[in-house]
Design brief:
By secondary structure, the protein is α/β, with parallel strands linked by helices. 46% of the residues lie in helices and 21% in strands. The chain has 11 helices and 12 strands. It has a 5-stranded mixed β-sheet, sandwiched between helices. Strands 10-7-11 form a 3-stranded antiparallel β-sheet.
C-alpha cells in the first residue's frame, strides 16, 4: 500500500537533489526520509533513486514516476486548498511572482487595491521570467506577472496585460546615444549587460544578430537578479535592454537614453499573467489578478 506522504517526499527529494536537503525542507531526519524512500521502492518493486556521494539521481523508473506524480501532487494540493477556502471562507496567503522589468507603479497599485479589499496575506517572489514560469508550473506560486510567453506545450494559461517592447538603452556618455539611427553591426561591437546565458531574453537578442549574419556581442556581462545593474552599466558605458514602460515610469533610467534602433528592430514582448491552466486559483488569487488588469487600464499601459 503506497503512502501519499511517501510520494510527496519523493517529489521533494527529486527537487532538492539530495536526501539531506529534502529532509531539512520537510523537517524530518535523514534516516526517516531514507526509510520512506525505501518503503516506496518496495511498494513499487523498482529502484527509484541512485545514491551518490553528492546526492541522488533518478533511475529511468524514477523519472517516469516523477512525471506522473507531479500532476497528482499538484491536484492534491489544489483539492486541499479548495476545501480549506470553502471551510474557512478565506484564502490564506496568495503567492505571486513578479518578473524583472515590470513597472513598479503597476505592482504597487495592484497590491494596494487588493490589500484594501481582502483579508488574505500576500507573498511576492521576484526573479527571472524563466524561473517564475517554472514556479507557476510547480505550483510554488499562484500566478506570475512577467514578460515571457509560455510555449503551447506548457500547461500554462497566458492572459496578456499590455505590449511592452524591449528597447536598447545606454548611458548618456555612450556615443551611440547621439547617432541618428544605430545599426546591428554597431550594436554587436558594444559592451552589453544581458541576462545570464540561456534565459529567454538573452536567447532572443542573440538570435537577432545571427539572423542578420552577425556574430552576437562578445563583450557581455551576464547578470541574474543583480540589484544594481544599471549603476554597473553606467560605470562601464554598456548597453542594456529595458522595457518601454519602465523608461516612462521610473527614475532608474534618468542617466540613460533609449537608442534609435535599427529599422528592422522588432520586439513583441507582452507583459502577461501566467497561471496553471487547470490548477486551482483561490478567490483571493483571482481577485488580485483582476486588480492587475484594472490597474493596467488605470495607468494606460
Amino acid at each position: 500500500m503506497l503512502r501519499i506522504d511517501d510520494l510527496k517526499a519523493f517529489v521533494e527529494v527529486c527537487d532538492a537533489g539530495s536526501l539531506v536537503a529534502a529532509a531539512n525542507k520537510l523537517a524530518v531526519s535523514q534516516p526517516t526520509l531514507s526509510k520512506a524512500m525505501a518503503r516506496l521502492e518496495r511498494g513499487l518493486g523498482s529502484q527509484l533513486l541512485e545514491r551518490r556521494a553528492r546526492g541522488v539521481a533518478l533511475t529511468e523508473v524514477g523519472v517516469l514516476l516523477l512525471q506522473h506524480i507531479r500532476g497528482i501532487n499538484l491536484s492534491l494540493q489544489d483539492a486541499i486548498s479548495a476545501v480549506r477556502d470553502m471551510r474557512h471562507g478565506v484564502s490564506g496567503t496568495v503567492r505571486i511572482g513578479i518578473g524583472i522589468g515590470i513597472p513598479r507603479s503597476l505592482v504597487v497599485g495592484s497590491c494596494r487595491s487588493f490589500l484594501l479589499k481582502s483579508k488574505s496575506s500576500l507573498e511576492i517572489l521576484g526573479g527571472m521570467s524563466d524561473s517564475l514560469l517554472r514556479d507557476v508550473a510547480n505550483g510554488t506560486i499562484d500566478f506570475a506577472v512577467t514578460g515571457i510567453r509560455p510555449s503551447p506545450r506548457d500547461a500554462i494559461a497566458w492572459s496578456p496585460l499590455f505590449e511592452d517592447s524591449m528597447i536598447p538603452v545606454a548611458p548618456t556618455t555612450n556615443p551611440l546615444t547621439q547617432v541618428e539611427r544605430t545599426t546591428w553591426a554597431q550594436l554587436a561591437a558594444e559592451t552589453w549587460l544581458m541576462p545570464s546565458a540561456g534565459t529567454a531574453t538573452r536567447v532572443w537578442l542573440e538570435k537577432q544578430f545571427v539572423r542578420r549574419g552577425l556574430i552576437p556581442p562578445q563583450r557581455i556581462i551576464g547578470l541574474r537578479n543583480f540589484p544594481r545593474a544599471f549603476e554597473l552599466g553606467e560605470m562601464l558605458n554598456a548597453i542594456s535592454l529595458a522595457p518601454s514602460s519602465m523608461l516612462k515610469a521610473t527614475l532608474d533610467y534618468k542617466s540613460y537614453r533609449a537608442l534609435r534602433t535599427p529599422v528592422d528592430w522588432k520586439s513583441d514582448r507582452v507583459v502577461s499573467i501566467l497561471y496553471r491552466r487547470r490548477g486551482y486559483l483561490s478567490p483571493a488569487a483571482e481577485q488580485l489578478m483582476k486588480a492587475f488588469k484594472a490597474e493596467t487600464k488605470k495607468l494606460g499601459l
